[in-house]
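Final report, section 2: Outcomes. Of the targets proposed, Aromatic ring-hydroxylating dioxygenase subunit alpha is the one most frequently requested by collaborating groups, and we therefore present its record in full.
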Amino acid sequence: MISQKLNDQITRIGPQTAAGAVLRRYWQPAALADELRASNGAVPVNLLGERLALVRDASGDLVLATRVSSPDEPPAHYPDPQSIELVEGGPVYPVVEKKGMVFTYMGPGTPPAFPNFDCFRAPDSHVFAFKGLWECNWLQALEVGIDPAHASFLHRFLQDEDPSDGYGRQFRDKAAHTDMPMTQVLREYPRPDIEVEQTDFGLKITALRHMANDLTHVRVTNQIFPQAICIPMSREMIITQWHVPIDDENCYWYTMFTSFAKPVDKDVMREQRLKEHRLPDYAPLKSRANNYHYNPDEQESLTYTGMGLDINVHDQWAVEGLGPIQDRTREHLGRGDAAIVRYRQMLRKAIKAVESGEEDMLPMRGGADVGRIVGPLSNDAIASTHDWKQASFLTDMQRRAECPWDASV
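The predicted structure is given below as tokens.
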């Protein structure tokens, strides 16, 4: 457990806050390219406690400018683009479009370079971007993503689908080099050993599920500082996901789905997700207001939550159920929370670095050669228990060697 003062320090992100100062020193997703294409005018953006709009400046360049908003405007409100009024003399932030997302830099000085992550260097044909609204603080949204054990419980499927029918869905694949569905692996081996190591970009998180016959399932995920994760979706695809604060009590998840093999079927993936979200605010159709479509019959025979097959809904229920801002003064972290503990330490260290003017100490800032940061390794593998590290690495190298675009590391 932590004090209320510390909980406030690591969760609140307004312009004059400690955590907000850290997040503002990194590129943040501000909108989807799909939103730009669909708009006939400015695109409203609510980000880090500020009400903004994507507009063209006098030179025709896209920028993020401060817009006029009413005091009672909902956090994810999308006003009529034609009615948006900008604040004369208000902050204007630079933007850049990458792989279907529009990023902005809201901090002081020169923006940092983008790392050479797979999601950024894959061709456009192999990357699909989407987002969704969650009514909770950004930190609890991030922390569910760096908890490797939660998938065995929150995303427990009591029946295993045919993996060939699961394109574009997480955990709808067979474990590497076996005929065992991933859903079965997670269900039958629910309590992994977890190893966490610090990297140039954040944290590498390895979950080890020890199986029969001296085999171990190895699942490598990553925390990319300050508030992204990179995780395997299937053997072919990875997910890079940012948890982006709208304000203290609401956030968006922005995701890039990156394929190592075939081009992504963007129409299929968009259609899948639009069945679960409404436009223009990308709010999920299942929510607290309709009890997330909870079905006790489904819970009896199909899923742990009884809330359908979309795991985003499971995560949404879990993080929104903690309240707008999770009360960490009464929590009791355990062995399975190793990555959450390490991340909070890293965030507190970054806060101190900014407060003391030592911004070069931040991950991927200062003198770091960010362009040399590649990957990161994010995959599932089953290997001999005594040789799991090498086997996990070689599985990733094989996937990269067969990749039609340059995925070399």
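The chain has a mean pLDDT of 91.
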